[in-house]
Design goal:
alpha+beta, 5-stranded mixed sheet, elongated
Length: 137
């Protein structure tokens, strides 16, 4: 590994330091972005319980605010440590499988969710999915 920093990297770093742009912390509510009538959330690093609570709150809040589409990023589960635990389901122990399963089984959310589908490759492919919400009456 080289210890030298290229001129381009120096310029990029200076540009970053002088801009007002802020990096978003996924541990704060700021990671939920509004794009017209859609929102997105990244669940990387959350436990199953944390992710389920976070996603349920997001869906309820989005429904109340007239948001129609959610992009849920779960990751593909390739870095999951569930392979090491013989007491955890290999599929339902990863967010990729457990979050959609949780949403299907939650009776309160069944009246709110219109449909779920796989994400386009540019939105995360196998590591993400869309949730479409009914309109509030």
């Amino acid at each position: 590994m080289s210890n030298k920093i290229s001129d381009k990297d120096k310029k990029d770093w200076q540009k970053f330091l002088t801009t007002k742009e802020k990096l978003i912390s996924k541990d704060q509510e700021d990671n939920i972005k509004n794009f017209n009538l859609s929102r997105s959330i990244d669940l990387h690093g959350y436990s199953l319980d944390e992710a389920n609570i976070k996603i349920k709150n997001l869906i309820l809040n989005s429904f109340e605010n007239g948001i129609e589409k959610l992009k849920i990023i779960t990751g593909k589960g390739i870095h999951s440590k569930n392979e090491e635990d013989p007491f955890v389901s290999k599929k339902l122990g990863t967010l990729k499988y457990s979050v959609p399963d949780f949403l299907r089984k939650d009776m309160e959310l069944n009246d709110i969710i219109k449909a779920m589908s796989s994400a386009k490759i540019e939105d995360g492919g196998d590591g993400a999915f869309y949730v479409y919400l009914n309109k509030k009456k």
